[in-house]
Amino acid sequence: MVVYLMKANVGRETIYLYLVQVSNIILPLVLVPYLAHVLGVEFFGKLSYAQAISYIAIFFVDFGFNFSAARNIGIDTNNTKNISRIYSNVQVIKSLIFIVVILLGVVFVLFSNQSIIDKKLTILGVISASSSILMPAWLFQGLGRNSNVAFLNFASRLLSLLLIVLFVKDQDDLIIAAICQLFSPVLAGVGMQIIILKNKIVDFATSYISFEDIKILTRDSFHNFSASFLTLGFTYFNPIIIKVFLGDSVLGVYSFADKLANVLRQLYIPLVQANFSRVCSLFHEQQYSTLKKLFIRIAYVFLGISLFAYISNYFLGEVVINLFFSESESVSALLRVMIFTQFIIAISMILVNLIVIPAGQSFYLKKVYLFAVIFYFSIIYPMIKWGGVYGVAISISLVELLIVCLFYKFIKKKKILIQ
Q1: Cβ contact 135:90 at 8 Å
Q2: Exposed, middle or buried by CB within 10 Å (0-12, 13-18, 19+), for 14?
Q3: Residues 13, 274 contacting (CB under 8 angstroms)
Q4: Taking the model in full, what pTM does it have?
């Protein structure tokens, strides 16, 4: 087998990721206003519903392997046979889960009282979860080669943008818009599989597949999955909750603001991804002082990005948004809450993705997220009644703040960063 595994320079990898990520930020800033304009608030909300279904389906197919399998690979990136063994078994598990998700999606559509167009969007969302199998981002995260994934995702998103501009002109083109958006990651995944086969990055072989390995990998990943499952209520299910209680038009306004706020997360993610493999190694070597300095530097970068975004929205948000979207005042007001929320999430990413998981303490995730989901469901209904869509946004901020506090308390109590 041709050895593709290389020790990537973290600094160079981070720069590459940010260059691609900047492009991935610019594309949504063009695409979201365009879609909101041509589809209208209500149908833009329907498109956001389809994306929520896609995210939920992908979540189940991922089954937490993005962290557990990536960590197993990141510990020893030179063991090519072990990497191929992990890859083969994880892909089999994901394929089996995908079949179950498809069947559940079909049953839901057959027995629900949704409109015909909502049923079509639901099916498209479920099928798009195949991208989780085709694009093994966890493999490249473990290898410290996230730029490979980033470049392909950028290329597929660019193609999606071009197709949408060419073929989506009004509300009648909603299904075309959904296909272009939801299947962009699928196309990127097909490209990645071609690259994997051509360069022999990893071997998928039936000889590596065993029931024992499947059981071990599933058990290791279950901590992450079961913990993240509890977050569905205050993450991916939010658009569905808004659709049910407040309608598609309000969902359109919320989704417009949410997609703009998520641009910040696109700025946070590369720094976390690029350092994940290195952090796993540093934990293995017990280099705690180096880890502390690294986490502090990352936190300062996140703070600077968030402050810049908040100030920009405060002074220019309403004026700029009004050029593309009629509900500019509502969107700008929502963004003030959502930008603060994104900073809290960024800190949570450091605590979870770069401390708790690499330190092998994933078991605690479930406990924290259980508290969070109970808290969320105890406040979401009265918050909707009190503040409508703003109540939803504030509820998410409160939940994410609770999560950060609980993880910080756990890390101090367990002295994870103390030698």
Answers
A1: no
A2: buried
A3: yes
A4: 0.83
With beta carbons less than 8 A apart as the criterion, state whether 302 and 347 touch. Answer: yes
404, 368 in Cβ contact below 8 A?
no
Task: Tell me how far apart the alpha carbons of residues 201 and 212 are, in angstroms, rounded to a whole number.
Answer: 24
pLDDT range class, residue 14, cuts 50, 70, 90? low
Task: Give 45-68 pLDDT, tens digit per residue.
Answer: 999 999 999 999 999 999 988 877
Q: pLDDT tens for residues 174-183?
A: 999 999 999 9
Could you tell me the two tokens for 105?
Answer: 């999606």
What whole-number distance in Å separates Cα of residue 377 and Cα of residue 375?
A: 6
What is the rounded CA–CA span in Å between residue 336 and residue 338?
6
